[in-house]
Design goal:
The structure is a single chain. The longest helix has 8 residues. It is globular and about 40 Å long. Helix content is 9%, strand content 47%. Strands 1-2-3-4-5 form a five-stranded antiparallel sheet, with helices on one face.
Length: 85
């Protein structure tokens, strides 16, 4: 993975707007709006990474039992790619 940008999930400002190489990336706030129905629990930190040439948001959250989880979401489509414990 290359290029890591830390973005707190609580800060919904589009911090990618000033980076010309990530113009196709959806703002974190738009991605969260789309995926929130699929998440049961409390959001944690999020970061934007370039993984094998694709931009991915890695979003931490705690499930309903308080266990930490990591959600990987395509940053251009908001498609959930996977969840890790």
């Amino acid at each position: 993975m290359a290029a890591i940008f830390g973005i707190g999930a609580e800060a919904f400002a589009d911090e990618t707007a000033s980076l010309p190489e990530v113009q196709e990336v959806m703002p974190l706030s738009a991605v969260l709006d789309r995926i929130m129905p699929a998440i049961e629990g409390e959001l944690g930190p999020a970061r934007l990474v370039k993984d094998h040439g694709a931009w991915v948001y890695v979003i931490g959250f705690f499930d309903e039992n308080g266990k930490p989880q990591e959600l990987r979401v395509d940053a251009t489509t908001a498609q959930i790619l996977g969840v890790r414990q």
